[in-house]
Write a structure and sequence with these properties.
heterodimer; A: alpha/beta; Rossmann fold; 9-stranded mixed sheet; two-stranded antiparallel sheet; 5 helices; globular; B: alpha+beta; Mth169, Chain: A
Chain lengths: 229, 81
Amino acid sequence: MKWGVVRFPGSLDDGDALWALRDALGQEAASLWHKDETLGGAECVVLPGGFSYGDYLRCGAIARFSPIMKSVARFAADGGLVLGICNGFQILCEAHLLPGALTRNRSLAFVCDFVNLRVENAATPFTRAARPGELLRLPIKHGEGRYVAPEDELRQLEERGQILLRYVDESGAATDAANPNGAMRSIAGVANERFNVFGLMPHPEHAVEAALGGVAGRKIFESIAGAAR
Amino acid sequence: MRAKVYVTPRKGILDPQGRAVEGALKSLGFGAVGNVRVGRFITLEIDAPSRAEAEIAVRQICERLLANPNIEDFTFEVAAE
């Protein structure tokens, strides 16, 4: 499968995403520059983590107006698969390709840790390699990861199964203590209504080798690779 | 024309910065303080034939970029210079 990983000025994790896809997962992956207007034939576009445009104004607010984002929006409208990780999730929300917004962590502190996530919907292109309710252990590292959306929007997300990942404790319970940033309803990752755009705060690309502390991130990439086949 | 834009966290949205500042003010003895919200103040100059047209443009600027309608409110003032 062909992947495209976008690099914005200030992206940090595009290199790791490319490494995870090519070296750890044996996929064909190319780097895309934010000024590119085409996606190089990618079947899945990854918006990586980092601090695009220095996080000026709001995280993702300026990156969403990059030339490549027009192509990404068109690609998504045609049903193409788009994965936004951390800053990429923030960009997708700012671009209205995903509902809601990501705001300053409740604690005001930058969090860097491993978290447990529960797969809430395993019938999507991004989670189909996991079992429903499966726990994934992935790293997070963010200062603005608190997911917020209006109450009626949250209800709809819930009803349609668009919440794909929740922060939980080791037993799989979505407790307040297991919520690292104060996200509403412990939301760690959401998909759009068509389930072809997915954003998550945790970093699957940092968890694809046992030497990195875990391999749970493979589930996300393998789901996508399987979905496009 | 010169515009002053004020962007604040929307009512009902948790503002941890505002809460931290409020806590600090109370610990300094300003016990009468409440409901502190921390936002953003932006100034800009804009070429427009009239104040009304400048206001239309500034509103669009706020809606498209300066504020995120999901989480923020904005107000602005436009004055001739």
